[in-house]
Amino acid sequence: MDRKKILGFEFTGKDGEFKLQQPDHSSFLYFPLVNEGGMMSTVTPKFHGQATTGHNTFLTPPLSVEDLHNSRASRNFWVYVEGKGAWSAAGNSAKQNAAFYTPSADDAVLEAGFLWHRVTRSNSEMGVKAEITSFVPSGNDKVELMKVTLTNTGTEELTLTPTAVVPLYARSADDLRDHRHVTSLLNRIYTSPYGVEVQPALSFDERGHRINHTSYGVFGAEGDGSQPVGFFPIQEEFIGEGGSLDWPEAVILNTTPEIGKGGGVDREGYEAVGGLRFAPITLSPGENHSYVVVMAIDSDRINVEAMMGKYGTSEAFDHLLEETKAFWADKVNMVEFHTGDSNADQWMKWVTIQPVLRRLYGNSFLPYHDYGRGGRGWRDLWQDCLALLIMEPAEVRSLLFNNYAGVRIDGSNATIIGQQPGEFIADRNNIPRVWMDHGAWPFLTTMLYLDQSGDLDFLLQEQTYFRDTFMSRCKERDTSWDTSAGSDLRTASGEIYKGTILEHILLQNLVPFFNVGEHNNILLEGADWNDGLDMGADRGESVAFTSFYASNLLDISRMLRTLKTSKGQETVELAEEMQLLLDTLNESVDYSSVSGKHERLDRYYAAAPNKVSGVHVSLDIDKVADDLEQKAEWLFDHLRSNEWVQSENGDGWFNGYYNNDGEQVEGEFFEGVRMTLTGQVFPLMGHAAAPEQIPHIIAAVDRNLFDDKIGYRLNSRFGGIQQNLGRAFGFAFGHKENGAMFSHMTIMYGNALYKRGYVKEGHKVLESLYSLSTDFEKARIYPGIPEYINEQGRGMYTYLTGSASWLLLTMVTEVFGVKGKLGDLLLEPKLVKEQFDSEGKASIKTIFADREFEVVYKATGSFNYGEYQIYSVTLNGGEVTLQRGSGSVIIPREELLALQTEKLHVIEVTLA
């Protein structure tokens, strides 16, 4: 083998299937296996990884990414070949690892798709080939399945003794270091005719000492359902004195299991292992034999007979595999792209599934688990909905509605999110923390929903507010708060208070307007989108998100005017306390006065501490819209006048931050240029950047942040640790939030450029990210977007990143220009020459108005954006009523609703 030649993955089918030669020659590779029932697994080319249903219920030992190649614990399947010795079908033995760099090493090929994983491994000296396929069945059972097929590839008969072995950790991740041995004393280990089961007596973790009911098991059968012949349930007995999981005595010496086929022997107080010995078999040349291994977690003792009846044969495995493939294909294929690059189209399928994976895994439970104990954050709730609006739009209205229940009356929000939609949990640890950007995202997502649906009535639906001990954006505590009263905001009379969704939106954007630092930008507080900027809570300011909030205020103002013209809404009903924030309606505040803003905010906090009067006032909708517009325009003038950095090179950019010493962060200093991409994205994405400023920003980004090797850096090199700004600058430059290519912000930069009409530049940004992610020799990741690209070009934190939602959104609504406009369908393509195929076509399949559409663009003249216009549009071959705009057309929603729901409708757009 030529280890110097690195072959990347190649797509082999139309549903994202790909193949990778010698996958175990690349470190840190892992693949997700998951279902909607709560089973969350990870598998590597050598079948390391973990299987869990949550932080406190790991079937296998919890792993971080470094453990993937350092740990000896894995799903393993051993073959003792008579006359030749032991061989791991998973490639995970001390002998095989030692032979890794020699000609006698195994040949391995990985194949994978949605969401299944297969490695075919062969060794000519042993004369054996093993094909191991893994998946988590779609549905609600918390199981992971593995089928192993052994084939004699030699010229003589082989006698094989197979042994499946999976370590049974069976407890909380907290016990991996603390109390590892003590918690093993809780283990109650059982054997049955099919395998080994562990049900610890207690749960011994941060929740206290509780009676445990959860059970964990490893079971197996031959392909025809035949049971194993014996078991090794105790890890230390399986590996032997001086042995290890990658060279266990029971396999190397081919010892007979002490516990035979009948099982039923109970053991207590030891580390467990699911060691399953199968009967010896003799294979003729070319002959094969299969085995099925079932890993399961249940809420009580496992019904083994029923489980093996459902999963324990090759026939059942193959049927469920096809069922699972179809389940995921149906999800992914709700959105499909056809361009001039078929590989990019297939790659986008993996991007499409990433938001679903994050919804199921949360921010944890894959090997890069630096985000903690599981679940999603506030920001994730809204950004994941961006993708759901495109993939599963029917679910989004209720999700959005439920999410708004997490808003506090002070404009902040709950930070601990429960398992159920709309479930928000009070912070029992009393950790005061506010991310200043949290209030900005809900309106962006809601506006997308309104444009897709036209459902303006959503804004007038009433929802509760969240309440806990924190008040005034965590600056004060409510000592009167009684946890037994729940987490709903109440009125002075004790009734649960509700306000419209519009009221929630206004609060989230009005409160920050007054919550400013000494330079009159919104305070950074705990951090903004960049969690690494977490050390500027006193005097730090986020100019970047001041731009975002300013744009929101203007867009909310316009939305209010639309409510009036479209629905005849003359007034808005709001909590009476909010009149203080709509200052121009009564007692105006001098917006240039920081102290004036603070005084008004303090008055609001005092009026609505952790309860409200419950009285609603009816305000003139035009006056409210005027108030918001005045605030927005003041902010735009302020940002353009005070936060613009004029470079000596002739270009310029926006300062994005002030640090905790009140110093401007960005600019040209004696020690060099300091610049952030975040500081440019939000002025561009909204309205803050004036049209004449945009070319200067692009030039400055290209000069200061673009790197041919790793793309668009999140920031330039600042130098020093920056303890007055955040922990991010303690990271090495070029890694994570300190100067890496952070996919999320890079894609939002591309999105902003498309929105502002800079299509060529936007395409360059997206193409850069695609090229980096698919350069396997450097990135070493499977298809999809990583969270970031590090200094060496390696993709990091694969699968669980909000950037996937943003790329999907950008491709659908900006590149292909398929978007809503208050319920109508707007077509505004921004395709470039490279995105048309050889016949001049580019197409997208997506959902709109609960119907499936394929929008086909056909260029008959120039393929360059800006040189073509929409010449004609047909729907299912017939003419369609259109409203023409500049480079766009609108198809009224009523025409779409007249179409059948069960068929694919084709919209053909001729560009000339």
Walk me through the structure.
Residues 327-817 form the Glycosyl hydrolase 94 catalytic domain. It comes from Paenibacillus pseudetheri. InterPro entries: 6-hairpin_glycosidase_sf, 6hp_glycosidase-like_sf, Gal_mutarotase_sf_dom, GH65_N, GH94_catalytic, GH94_Enzymes, Glyco_hydrolase_94_b-supersand. The chain is α+β, with helices and mostly antiparallel strands and 912 residues long. Among the domains are: 10-332, Glycoside hydrolase, family 65, N-terminal domain (Beta-galactosidase, Chain A, domain 5); 643-815, Glycosyltransferase; 817-911, Maltose phosphorylase, domain 3 (Sandwich). Helix content is 27%, strand content 26%. The strands form 16 sheets. Strands 1-2-8-9-10-11-23-17-14-13-20 form an eleven-stranded antiparallel beta sheet, covered by helices on one side. Strands 6, 7, 12, 18, 19, 21 and 22 form a seven-stranded antiparallel beta sheet that branches. β3 and β4 (40-43) form a beta hairpin. The longest helix has 25 residues, at 543-567. The protein is globular and about 90 Å long. The two termini are 53 Å apart. The mean pLDDT is 94.
- Strand runs, count: 54
How does the overall form come out from the CA principal axes? globular
State the share of residues found in helices, binned by percent.
25-40%
> What does the largest sheet look like?
11 strands, antiparallel
Q: Classify the beta-strand content into a percent band.
A: 25-35%
Distance between the termini: 53 Å
Given this structure, which CATH class of the domain at 10-332 is correct?
Mainly Beta
CATH topology of the domain at 10-332: Beta-galactosidase, Chain A, domain 5
Q: Helices and strands: which structural class?
A: alpha+beta
How large, in whole angstroms, is the Cα Rg? 30 Å
Compute the number of helices. 22
**CATH homologous superfamily label of the domain at 10-332:** Glycoside hydrolase, family 65, N-terminal domain
